[in-house]
Amino acid sequence: MSASMMQPNLDQLAGLTGVRAGALSRWQETGWPNSRVEQWRFTRLASLEKMDLRPASAAAPAGTEAISAVLPENGVILSFSNGVLDVAGLAALPDGVTASFLSENDTALAVLAALVPASHPVSDLSLAVMTSGLHLEIAGRVDVPIILVFTGDDNGVSSHPVVSVKLADGASTVLAEWHQSAVGLSAPLMAIEVGDKARLDYAKVQHESAQSAHLAATGLTLGEGSVFEGFQISVGGQLARLETHITLTGENADCTLSAIYLGRANQHHDITTNMSHAKGHCLSNQIIRGVLDDSARGVFQGKVHVAPDAQKTDGQQMSRALLLSRKAEADAKPELEIYADDVLCAHGATVGELDETQLFYLTSRGIDRDTARGMLISAFLDDAIDSISHPALAAMLRPVTTAWMTASNRSETGDK
Amino acid sequence: MAPLLEIRDLHASVGDTPILKGINLTINAGEIHAIMGPNGSGKSTMSYALAGRDGYEVTGGDILMNGVSMLEMEPDERARAGMFLAFQYPVELPGVGGMSFLRAAVNARRIEAGEDEIDQLEFVKLVRAKAKHLSINDDMLKRAVNVGFSGGEKKRYEILQMALLEPVLSVLDETDSGLDVDALKIVSDGVNLLRDPARSMLVITHYQRLLNHIVPDYVHILAGGKIRRTGGKELALEVEESGYVGIDDAA
Ligand SMILES: Nc1ncnc2c1ncn2[C@@H]1O[C@H](COP(=O)(O)OP(=O)(O)OP(=O)(O)O)[C@@H](O)[C@H]1O
Ligand SMILES: [Mg+2]
């Protein structure tokens, strides 16, 4: 660890006890991972050094700035500004949702700490620093989407919002995260427990500004017969890592976790997943698509782990990256660790370019080259986007890719 | 008045290999010209050079449409100016919906002409009507472009595009290859529907039988990158009988 690397001002944390104190001492021991740590080989954090960050204080949040989101109309929005929750929003939570605060609840924190990826620096750091800690319990069927909006405008701040969500057995809900900070480091920590026969439709949009960094750690457990349909888009930020660890803890769980990353300029996107089949008869499916322009870099690391008695596991993972420029670069590291013998698992990773023959076919029909490129990129992304079955979430996500392509065409025309 | 298409001493290379070695061809409005020639003689290369495909570099000569050189024009500009190429091997576009593809093409042409985009319902009706003539069913229309189409279906889909785009110059590259007898008739009828005093066609084929359906005004024999002979439709019969022996292709 380099000595000059960003060190959060931890003075304010003196006097922590319990889980958070433990997290703090672990973090102080390990600090930021360097590139010799295998899981961080492709994503280096040295650029954080220049950001000179301090953790946000729990000051009253500023008003939510205008965000470019097309958020589901009927959704309830909970706003976090510089990592701090605007508690007034909790009053609008629909029936079936109970909110409480984590910072004082060591039992809940212990549960959360066990769920989130242990290998991720944010897990310990955000637990310790925690700008806001929100816990939501969902009971029964909640159709109103709950949307967590994270904005930030305080220069030099690192935001550490911590959210845990527990879906009771048989519960169902729709949850979205929209991240759009202008500056700083966002280090959100999420832990989600999906109970037996529960269903969660989930989407996350990482839409930070080009000056920001986003390092997220998310952990989920899926109970018996539960359904999780999750989607992540990483489009903003200078440096972004979305790391998600899922453990299938009951039989017959059905898990989809798809992701798209879209990069240009010198952006770095990292999608890291860890799908752990602890019990048999579960299905997991991951569709990852990346599009990279200019000198952008994309990383997908996906591990599928099947425990010895997780028989009849069906674990699928397919990652494809499309490079629009010679200087763009994509790395994929799929890993299968299978200890059961009766499983159906497959993974694949490809990196390619737009097909000139296909482009010629389209342009020979009078379609201009930019539109033709857009059509082929959309086609490339569609298998992933089509995996979102919840209409409000699909409606929120589609404009993000469309807007990115429009901007891409503009910059391409500018280069010529 | 300038001819609809004039190819002047066209030289073109693929990579560093010269393929077209001085093609001269003039097509007046309303005429149908057929091009025959041995495999590898440069027929598809010529069609790509006309359409402006990257990698088919014109090293000499000129291509003029209505007196205007097209060499500096991109493929999409040439298409919007009224050129259409029916591909020898139509390209599959997985994930690109057929209807949205057809509509994008039609709208590109309309916007170029200063017209409004076509109304969605009107468009669906138009496509259905044209598709019916070509025995293209709704299921094919709904699929991704050319994906899972049989060889013959792909060729019919090319003609559907041509019918929708109403080009002034159509280049058909072996549209008859791989067609069964009935499909050949369907495709030829589709092509003949577009015959018009203001439109011209360049029909590349290996078989005289197509020319029974689409009767050409002229037949040219391309060999070794040059047009070696030009005649009327009887030249196609001659080729059918005696092949290309005796046609001088010493380049
Ligand atoms: N992309 C390419 N790279 C290298 N050589 C090429 C390429 N395209 C065409 N050629 C060569 O150019 C020559 C002419 O090819 P072309 O496809 O134009 O022939 P054709 O007359 O259409 O033949 P066919 O009747 O078999 O369709 C051939 O020798 C071919 O190998
Ligand atoms: Mg050919």
**In angstroms, what is the radius of gyration of chain A?**
21 Å
- Tally of extended strands of chain B? 10
Strand order of the largest sheet of chain B: 6-7-8-3-9-10
What separation lies between the terminal Cα atoms of chain A? Answer: 43 Å
Beta-strand content estimate of chain B:
25-35%
User: In sequence order, what are the helices and strands of chain A, one letter per element?
Assistant: HEEEEHHEEEEEEEEEEEEEEEEEEHHH
Number of helices of chain B: 9
Overall form of chain A:
globular
Helix and strand composition category of chain B: alpha/beta
Structural class of chain A: alpha/beta
The CATH class designation of chain B is: Alpha Beta
Overall pLDDT level of chain B:
94
Largest sheet of chain B: 6 strands, mixed
CATH homology superfamily of chain B: P-loop containing nucleotide triphosphate hydrolases
CATH topology group of chain B:
Rossmann fold
Please tell me how large the radius of gyration of chain B is: 18 Å
Total domains of chain B, how many? 1
Task: Look at the structure and give the mean pLDDT of chain A.
Answer: 89
Strand content of chain A: 35-45%
Number of strands of chain A: 22
Pick out the low-confidence regions of chain A: 1-5
